[in-house]
Amino acid sequence: MSLQLAAGSPVASTSATGLAVSQVRAYQAALSDPRRFGQATRSPDPEAAVPASGLLTGLRGKDVIIAFVESYGQVAVRGTSYSPGVDAVLRQQTGMLTRAGWSTQSAWLTSPTFGGISWLAHSTLQSGLWVNSNQRYNELLASKRFTLSDAFDEAGWHTVADDPSDNTVWKPGTYFYHYDQTYNRLNVGYRGPTFSFSSMPDQYTLAAFQRLELTPGHKPVMAEIDLTSSHIPWAPLPAMVPWNKVGNGSVFDPQPAESESPATVWRSNNTVRQFYGQSIQYTMTALTSWVTELNDPNLVLILLGDHQPHTAVSGPGATHDVPISIVTRAPSVLKQMSSWHWQNGLLPAPSAPLEPMDAFRNQLLNTFSSKTPARDASAQGSAATRAAAVSGTSGR
Hints:
Strand content: 5-15%
Oligomer: single chain
Structural class: alpha/beta
Mean pLDDT: 87
Low-confidence stretches: 1-31, 373-396
Number of helices: 16
Distance between the termini: 24 Å
């Protein structure tokens, strides 16, 4: 599938020779700093030392949703044949949100993966470590690393993982991320059709999450929601229905037959790129219209891509960069993150700030948590550890 773990180094290729070469390169890269990554997973984590009373005080009372948009990479919004269509939707939805009282800001993150293996991006964002291989992922899961879900749990949030691609109990969600609740394709009441890889449309995923978790008077929720309608092969694609018609999902029954099949779409790279762009347009429309449909004044939505799409879409030499945006109605949230210098709107310009994805955990925790003596002492005593972790886990 031409998956990549490092820029320019495919992990899988249609060429057997290319695969052999890439395996050697990947093995050499994995050998370069495993000791430093292992040390980071075993060393005391400064963020874990912050008292619960000081964690995320700037977000208290907010529903914080981290929504990963599958394959939402930089190529979706910059310099490609399909990016103008995506850009138009982002500008349109930015305007719609602004008129409804929402503020949006955006920037860029560099993902540790390319074309697939989404869990590497999820774990990198959550852990603050550069998880760019399954070897590192497994090592991370065996550690006691302090994740964002841990931080929100300790600070009093109800924590949730929602991944409609799972069809069994996701064990790391309990023993590593410590989520209070996990949802998958089997426990959200869906009775509609599948759309190739995607077991349900993103619109249903969001509607079900609202029904199950965001009921009146609910405890503040922190959730990671993985949206899959933009997953390869990008056909057949769902279409939006009125939110009050979503029901159990049977309303989507006719849609797969009304869209092109994967076999038809993949006859041409041009068609593949076209349908990829349409899938991103669909997901971003569903996500942003859900915000106004939900109309939760306490919602803080962080939406981002997990990685760039397959090379059939992104082409050779694409970066690992993905967009990230925040949507909120709270001026206090924007004020606290003013030092990030993100740009207004859902569409980041080339000049927008760019950070590695593993930097986001500390950026969020340090911005929205109280400056306590325990935090200051921990930060001073662990400066060397942090420097080693950054240099050893960024892999660049």
